[in-house]
Predict the 3D structure of the following.
Amino acid sequence: MNTVAAPAARRNLDRLGEVWQERRGLLGWLTTTDHKRIGLMYFFTTLAFFAAGGTEALLIRTQLIGPEQHLLTPAAYDEIFTMHGITMIFLFVIPMTTGAFGNYLLPLMIGARDMAFPRMNAVSFWIFLGSGIFVYIALATGQAPNAGWFDYVPLASKQYDPGLNIDFYGYGLIFNGISSTAAAINIIVTIFKLRAPGMSLSRMPLFCFAFLAAAFSLVFALPSLTLAALFLELDRQLGFHFYDVAFGGDPLLWQNLFWIFGHPEVYIIILPAFGIATSIIPTFVHREMVLFPLVALAELLVAFLGFGVWVHHMFATGLATLVTVYFAAASLIIVIPSAIQIFAWITTILVGTPDFKTPLLWIIGFIVFFVIGGLSGITVAAIPFDQQVNASYYIVAHFHFVIFGGAVFPILGGMYYWFPKVTGRMYHERIGQLSFWLSFVGTMVTFFPMHFVGIDGMPRRVFTYTASAGWTALNLLESIGSYVLAAGLLLVIVNLLVSLRTGRPAGRDPWHGATLEWETTSPPPAYNYAVIPTVSSAYPMWDAGDRERDEARLVRGEGLLARGHETPATTVQDGTLDEVLAMPAHSVWPPLVGLLLFVCFVMLLLAHFVIAAAVGGALAATVLAWHSSEPHSEPAPALGESPVKDGAA
Amino acid sequence: MASPLLGRLLARSARHTEGQQRPPAPTPRDPGTVTSRRGVRRLRCTATVLCLAFGASALAGCGGRQSIVAPHSKQTSVIAELWWWMLGAATIVFLGTVGLLGVAFLRRRTSGLPVFGENERFTSGLVIMFGIVIPIVVLLVLFGASDIYAIRYSQAPAARSTKLTVDIVGRQWWWEVSYPGTQAVTANEVHIPTGTRVQVVATTGDVIHSLWVPQLARKIDMIPGYENRILFDTPTAGRYLGQCSEFCGLEHARMRLTVVAEPPSAFRTWLANMAKPAAIPARSRAAEQLFMSRGCGGCHELRGTAAAGRVGPDLTHLASRSTLAAVTIPNTPRKLAEWIQDPQAIKPGNHMPDLGLSSSEAREIASFLEELR
Amino acid sequence: MSPGPAATPGSAGAAPRGEMPPRTGIADTGLRAAKLATERRAVPNGVWGMALFLCAETMLFAGLIASYFYLDFRAPRWPPAGAPLPEVRGPAILTAVLVATTVPIVFASRRARAGSRDGTIAMLAIATLVQAGYVAYQLHALVGELHTTPPQSSAYASSLIALLALHHAHVLLGVLLNLGMIFWLFAKGLTGYRLTGVRAIALYWYVVNTIAVAVLLTTISPSL
C-alpha cells in the first residue's frame, strides 16, 4: 500500500461523511431515518419494556411464593399476569428482534447503507412507541387488560369485562400490529433488493434467512390478530355479535382467529433468535455452519409449516377427534426442521474449535433450553396428554423454555456479541460469564419445576393456591429461581453499562467474524461502508482477497456512491447491480404520523368516532405531505468512473 | 489510516475457495473464560445446583390429590403411562444433547469429530441421522401410541355407551351439578357410582371454564354454545379433587370441586336423597322465614319451598356437602355463618353480595341450612 | 448461481466505464423516468412494498370471508329468521363497474411507463371518478343496509356489514391514493419515484378489484 493513495482515501471518506452528516441534538433523533439510530431507539425502548415485564413477573412469583399470599388482590393479579404476557411478546421480544437487531444489523450484514424504506422504518418505531405507551396508560390508570394475553371471550366481552381494560387490549394490539407489519415489509424488501452486488441469495448470511422467514410470517399472520381484535371491539363498542352465542356468534371464532396468528407468532419470536445463534456459532467455533443450505431451508420451512398447526392450542375444547389428530400430526412434522437446525448447530460446535466466550455461552444455554422446551412441546402433541396438562403449569414451563430460553438467551448473547461493534468497546468478559451462569441457573430453577407442579395439577393463571395442594415447595423454589434470574439479567445490564465507559477499545473485528458488519468501524459511520463491499461467498470477512480489493477501491473512489445518500439495489436472486437508490435523510413526517395515529387510537378507545375520523383525515393529509420530499441525489461521477482528483472538492 | 487495516488483512490466512474457508487461528485465551480452573469450578457448582433442582422437582411432583400421575381410571392410567414413556425418551434425548455439548467442550482444541475427524459426509450424515431420520421414527412411534391408541380412552364416550349422565354447568366460580332424569340438583360436589361408565356433559352458564379432575379424566372446556362430553369411570371409591382449568375471572383460583366415587348402592341412596325436596324441621320455620325475608331465595333454590332462585348454588341439601364456596372453606356451622355474613372477605369478587346481616342473623341462617341434609 | 459482474476483479458490480447506471429519485422529466424504468431489471422497491402490504390485506379479507362461512356452517339457518336474503343483481352490477375501472388503471400505468404525465393523470382521473362514484353509492347503500340488517341483530348481519364496510373502506383508500398521486403529478411532474408509485397504486387496484369479486360472491352466497 503506497502512502500517496492514503490522502485520496481520506478525501473520499470525508466527502461521504459530509453527505451523511447526522442532524444534532434531540431534533436529530426525532427526525432520524438512519437505521442505526432507529435500531438503538428500539433497543432502549424494548429494554425498558423488558424491565416492566420482568417486574410484573417478579410480582407474580412473589405472590405465588407461598399459599394464600396477599401481595396482590385477585383483580390486580389478573392485570399483572395479562400485562406480563402482552409486554413480553408485543412490546419486548418482537420489537427487540425485528426492530433493534434487525434494523441495526441487516443493512450492515448485506453491505447496504440503510433499510429499503428509511422513513417507514422511522414511523414503525414511533408507532411501536405509541402502542406501548397506549397499553401502559391502561396500567397506570388501573384498568389494564385483565383477561390474559390471549383474552378469551366471553370473559373479555363487554358483559363480563365492562370497563376500558379490554378496549386497551384490542386497540393496542391493532396499533402495535401496524408497526410490526411495516417493519416486516421493510425487512423483506431490504433483504431482497439491497444486498451488496455479488451477494446472491445463497451467499446471504443465515441471519438474513431467519429474519426473512420471520418477516414473511409477520405479514401473513398479523392480519388474523387484527381481525380478531377488530371483531372484539365491534362487539364491545358497537354491539356486533361475532362472538355472541345468543345471536349466532361463536367464542371459538375468537380462539381460531387468535391462534391462527398466535402460533406463527411463536415462530416469529424464535426465528430471529435462530438467526443470532447462527451468526455467533461460526464466529466462535471458527468454522462455517455445517449444511448451510439445509439450515437455511429449515428456517424457511419452520415459518411456513407454522401456519398449519394452530388448533393444537385448542385440544381441550371438545373438537372432533379427527380434527385434533390432523393438527397433532402437523405439529409433529414441524419438529423436523427444528431438529435439523439443532443438530446442525451442535455438529458445527463439535467439528469446530469452540472458544467459550460469553456470546457462545448464551448460545449453549439457548440450545439446552430450546431442547427442553422442544421436548415438552413434543409431549403435548400427544393429544390425551395435552388434554391433561393444557392450561396447567406444564404449559407455562414449556413456553418459557422455548421463549425465554429460546429467544431471550440469544438476544442476550447477541447483545454481548455486537456490543463491541455498536459501542466500539469490549465488555468485561468475566462479569459477562457470571451474568450468564446466574441467568442460566435462575432460568432452570424458575421454570424446570413448573413442569412438575403442572403434572401435580396446578392450573395456570391462579392468583393463589392452598397449602393442602402440595404445591408449596415447588412454588417456593420457582420464586427463588426468579430472583436469581433477575440478578443475572441485572448483571448483564450493569456489565454493559459499565463497559460502555471502561471497556477497552474493540477495534473493527475483535471476534474475527465472518459477516460484513465486522468490516466497518466500531461504531459504524453514518454511511456504514465507505465503498460498497465486494461479496463472493457466504462468509465475506473470511475472504481476505475481497477485503483487499475493497481497500483498493476506496483509494480509487470506486463504488463510493457519494452523490447523495446512495445505496445500490440489486436483483433478488443473483444480486447483480440493478440501480442506485437515493435514500431519504431526516424527515419530520414519521414522528408526526406516529403522534396522529396515537391520538386516533385514543379517540377510538373512548368511542369518539367522529373525532377519530377527523384525526384520520389529518393523517391522510400528513401522508400526502410526506410524499412532498422526494429522495434527491446530487449529480456526481458514476460508479466506475475516475475518482476525485487531488485538489478537487 | 488505510495501511494498518491492509496490514491486518494481509496477515490473515490465504483466501480459500468457497466451501473450504477457515478463519485465522483463534486469539490466545483470556484466563477468565469457562475453561480456566475457576470457570470449571463454577461449572461444577452450577451442575450441582441444577441436579438438586431437577431432583427436587421430580420428586415433589408425585402423588398429590390433583396429580395426573396418581391415576384412578383406565383413561388416566393410560395417559400417565404415556407420560412416563415420554419422560424417559425425553431424558435420553436431553442427556444425549448435553453429552454432545460436553464432548464439544472437552474436544474444544481439536477440530473435527471424534474418530471421524473432518469427514464432511460423516458430519452431514450426523445431522441427517439425528435431525431427520431418528426424529421421524420417534415421532411416528409417539403419534401411534398417543394419537391413535391412547386417544381411544380419552375421547368423548360413544353415544349410548354409558350408564349414567351427570350435567355439570360451570359458572363464575362454582359448579352446578344435576342428574338428568331425576330431580337431583347440587353444587360443587359430584357423586358417581364406582365401576360404572358415567357420561359427564360439560356446559357453561357464563364464560369459558374447564372441568379438570386429574385423577379421573382429562380436562374438558365448557364453552358457550357447546355441549362437551367426557367419561368418568373409576373402580376405586374415594374423594377426588378437581379444579377449573381455564381462566374465568377473579376467583378462578378458588373454583374447585369434589368428585365422590362410592359403591353403586351408596350412590343410589345419595341420589334418591338429593332428588327429595328440602326436609325442613318444624322448629326451623322461623329461620326459614329469615332466609326468605333477607332475599336469599332470590338466588338460591330450596326445592319444595318458595325459594326458587337459580343464580347461586342449590341449597336444598347443603348440609350433605363437605365444603363450601367450591371447596374453598370446610362446611361447618361457624364457617358457613362467616361466609353468609361476609362472602367478599373469603372470596373477594364472587357474585354473592354483602347482605348486611348481623352476626346473629348469619348464625341463625347458617344453623338452619346445616339441618338440610 | 451466476456470480454476475462481482466475479470480475476490481469492478465489483460496476457498470461499464463511462455509462451512468440506472438511478431513481432524481427530479427529471417523465421520459427520463421512463428510460430508467425500462433499464431496471428487478421489480422496484415501492412495488415490492405494496405487494407485501397487499399480502397482508388479502389475509385480512381471507379471514373475514372464512369467518363468514365459519359462522354460516355453524348456524342452523343462514341468514337467520328475520334477515332478508341478499340482493344479487344490484351488487353484481356495481362490482362489475368497479372491476371495469381496472382498464383505465392499466392504461394509467402504461402512460406512466411511456413517460407521459398528462396521459397518466387523465387515466387516473377517469378511474377515480368512477371509483369515487362507486364508493359514494355503496356507502349510501350500506347506510340503508344498516336499517334492514342491523349488525346488532345477529352474527350474520355483523359479518355481512363488517365485510362490506371493510371492502368499501379499501376502495375509499384507493380513491385517496389516486387523488394524492394526481395531486403530486400536477405539482411536481412525473419522476422515477412517482412512476414507481403509479405502478404500486395500479397493483393495489388489481388486488382490491379481485377481492371485490370474492366479497361479492360471499355476501350474495345465501341467495345463490
